[in-house]
Amino acid sequence: MKAPLQRVSLASLGIVMLAQVLFVQCTEFVPPADNYTVSQGDNATLSCLIDDKVTRVAWLNRSNILYAGKDKWSIDSRVQLLTNTKSEYSIVITHVDVADEGLYTCSFQTEDKPHTSQVYLIVQVPAKIVNISSSVTVNEGSNVNLQCLAVGKPEPTITWQQLSEGFSSEGELLEITEINRQQAGDYECVTSNGVSVPDTKKVQITVNYPPYITDVKNAQSPVGRPATLRCKAMAVPPAEFEWYKDEKRRLISGTEGLSIKTESSWSVIVFSNVTSRHYGNYTCLASNKLGSFNSSLRLLKPGDPLNQGATHMVSPLLLGLLSSTLIPLLRTV
């Protein structure tokens, strides 16, 4: 803390000159300074215990005089005289900042000799994240690197974690090799140094992968009654659905006595009034920019086995991905 001097009386000038002399004379034999730790933004109270034998007293920061007796020498408005009695001489520094850190000396004169009492002010700064990777979208099998930078005093620790999977990793850099769809989600950077509550920020990783049909359901209904065929697929980005009859004729909603309803992960064909021409094989095709997957299902007459028909077919791209994963595993068996 730099403290330019104000104009004061000749009497206080004498106190100041004495304080500087005492400071120089006593630096050779004063005991080690006590540490006084505060957090950035808090107030710091510096107290000096004296008695009625003290004739002159002053507070100094390094060699700069802050207060001499009741006279203020620092022009910093945050520095104020708090207590000036026969037993205590104290000042307060409000809204402490890192620049205030350093050695503070209370210098006082009794009838027989000079004395000093010193304290070293340590200013701690709460951990704070100053830079973090942006959210990212990648294809399954890619490598992902996330970085989180934080500052603080003392030096903060940094931890990456994914709460949904119970995953955590120490350090500012998180490296994920050949990411899979189960590793998608929010990753949280947590930094802490014990000064205040941890600082946290999140990064979202989106993992694209080709469609995979997870559920199909045949239907069985007599002529004249309603029926529904259902197809559900998982994919990122969401799959687009198409329906085919007898593996070649694409179906259009609102024609041939049927309607098609589609949401993000499923699609259904609704027959409001089944006719004989509706019976047979249907194909659900789910696709996105990474590949496609299809599954066959049937609308059955009463008396036909309900579980016959449903088959699945995967696109060549997905077959390649599965082969690259399964073949190395089989070789280790």
Explain how this protein is built.
The chain has 333 residues and is mainly beta. It folds into 3 domains: 91 residues, Immunoglobulin-like (Sandwich), CATH 2.60.40.10; 77 residues, Immunoglobulin-like; 85 residues, Sandwich (Immunoglobulin-like). The protein has 2 helices and 25 strands. The strands form 4 sheets. Strands 1, 3, 4, 5, 8, 9, 11 and 14 form an 8-stranded mixed beta sheet that branches. It starts with 9 loop residues before the first helix and ends with a helix. The relative contact order is 0.10.
State the gist of this model.
InterPro entries: Ig-like_dom, Ig-like_dom_sf, Ig-like_fold, Ig_sub, Ig_sub2, Ig_V-set, IgLON_domain. Helices cover 10% and strands 52% of the residues.
Which parts are unreliable, with pLDDT below 50 for 5 consecutive residues or more? 2-30, 308-312, 314-333
CATH superfamily of the largest domain: Immunoglobulins
| Global mean pLDDT | 85
How far apart the termini lie comes to 70 Å
Question: What descriptive keywords fit this protein?
Answer:
single chain; 333 residues; mainly beta; Immunoglobulin-like; 3 domains; eight-stranded mixed sheet; 10% helix; rod-shaped; disordered N terminus; disordered C terminus; signal
